[in-house]
Design a protein that fits this description.
The chain is of the alpha/beta class and about 290 residues long. The chain contains 11 helices and 9 strands.
Length: about 290
């Protein structure tokens, strides 16, 4: 177990990283909003395997919440997170206050066009991904990591960050790790703790719907509408109305109406009770 150091200021973090950087140590960053779960821990574990220094940021970013109520109830338990980070071998936990990231007079936003517009962008509004891109750009410049780790569950967010990193020539490798899942397939999420027992059981339909779509494609179905109807039926059976359940190109998020042997991405967002959940799964028809 590491003795994880908690740092709350930009200057303090840069000072802590100065010596490892002079020694050409490989630095890994896992950006988070806390409330650690198996998905976060899997990212930390990968960073620990790859890097000499592992930094985890813990910052509940108000700029990416389009509902103030959602921000207010977002789970927070820094002491628990610190204990888990130490068990995962994290060296530094950067846990700034809002004023450290957005000081008085802060007036800059990073906006990525194109991949921000459908799906989450359409349902959460353009300010959501502006908030994500801005805070991630800040973290990348503050930490200066060699590698930054993200989860596949947030597939659209990953595309946004990849586009931003490429467009702004930020010298970091974006490493995307598989979605961590609970035993029934539900994607690990900080929001899962807000589900009641009945909601928790119903929520597993999201992954069942994605798997149904993937299985149908694997068995030879190529028609996008047929594949989506089968997946949506799983949600309907659990009494869940999806905000979206779509088949899209994994690189551009353009709608896919016919599978042609290339992978497509089945994506879903739905509210189960008051809790909004997202998930995705690659689907592919046989090539012959």
């Amino acid at each position: 177990m590491r003795n994880t150091q908690v740092i709350r200021t930009v200057d303090g973090l840069r000072a802590a990283l100065a010596q490892p950087r002079r020694a050409s140590a490989r630095i890994g960053l896992v950006p988070t909003m806390g409330a650690f779960h198996e998905g976060h821990l899997s990212l930390m574990a990968q960073a620990r395997r790859d890097c000499q220094v592992v930094v985890v940021s813990l910052f509940v970013n108000p700029a990416q919440f389009n509902e103030t109520g959602d921000l207010a109830v977002y789970p927070r338990d820094e002491q628990r997170d610190l204990e888990l980070a130490a068990e995962a071998g994290v060296d530094l936990m950067f846990a700034p206050g809002v004023a450290e990231i957005y000081p008085d007079g802060f007036a800059t936003a990073v906006s990525v066009a194109g991949v921000t517009e459908p799906l989450e962008g359409a349902h959460r509004g353009p300010a959501h991904f502006d908030g994500v891109a801005t805070v991630v750009a800040k973290l990348l410049h503050i930490v200066g990591p060699d590698v930054a780790y993200f989860g596949q569950k947030d597939a659209q967010q990953v595309l946004v960050i990849r586009r931003m990193v490429a467009d702004l020539n930020i010298p970091v490798r974006v490493e995307v790790c598989p979605t961590a899942r609970e035993p029934d397939g539900l994607a690990a999420s900080s929001r899962n703790v807000r589900l009641s027992g009945d909601e928790r059981r119903r929520a597993s339909a999201l992954h069942r719907g994605l798997r149904r779509a993937a299985d149908l494609a694997r068995d030879g179905e190529r028609d996008g509408a047929t594949i989506l109807a089968a997946g949506r039926a799983e949600l309907d059976g659990a009494g869940i109305d999806a905000e979206y359940f779509e088949l899209v190109d994994p690189d551009t998020l353009a709608p896919v109406t016919q599978l042609n042997g290339r992978p497509a991405l089945a994506v879903v967002a739905a509210r189960v009770g008051d809790t909004r959940l997202i998930d995705n799964e690659l689907v592919q028809s046989p090539t012959t």
